[in-house]
Amino acid sequence: MSRVFRRAAASVLLVLAPAALLADGGRGQAGDEQPLPDTHAFLDQVRRNLRSDQQLIEQYTFTEKRTEKRLDGNGALKKTKTDTFEVYPSAEPGKMYRRRIARDGVPLSAKELAEEDHKQAERVEKSERKLAEEDAAARAARLRKQEEDLREEQRVITELYQMDELVVEGREWIDGRPTIVIAFTPRPGYKPVTEGGKVLQKLAGRAWIDEEDKQLARVEARLIDNLGVGPARVARLQKGATSYIYRRKVNDEIWLPAEARFTGSAKVLLFFGGGVDALFEYGDYKKFSVSTEATVTQP
Asked: Into how many domains does the chain fold?
């Protein structure tokens, strides 16, 4: 459930796409002598910079540490689980290979690492065989699906022109860089059409945009209504759940995720499913190369 909401919260990136027709660009923080940028022009530049983080990270290898705390109905800690991965682009389009290297703070043994790599090698072989056997019709269908996914993302961006009220709150500094702070709230009564819009309509919060690069540096969101997730929406994330995403400029050239966190509870059908506090930490980004993949996928 934490993964589902993390993806939903990541979609808040798209909230920044509109030109903020209702935003007021004339306000700044107390003591801030530098005027804020023109809101319409600023957010239009941000919109042109928007790309899915998924597309960006597929160009890199990196580490991912997941710390998940499971809570009971009273909020008491039941279990803590930590996994650390090396992450590589997969041979299968749109997929990543997460090579577990530690569990609950203990590094995996050489035998366990070999087992991880052997399983990945089998997946790569199966994927390559599938692509090799793919006929022209199947290939065309796959490419159409990829193009449709990109168009759907643009439809969500377009819908947000009508969906959210965006208000510039001022300027704040993150990691020594000035950011413009924007509050976002869904407009009451709006009926979303896209699936992404149906998720985003249930989120409100604040976003910090790097003033120089026009990139999202941080976003904090809260769930303002219950959200059905999973097959047939049988699980429901409960109103009040919170999530944040923090992005950092890597190698002074590209903005990528640094940290994400989800805290909330869920119900499955009529039964309480408990709570979760999930933290995701990313780092050690390196530009991906084919030779790197070949090294880690040897059985």
From this structure: 1
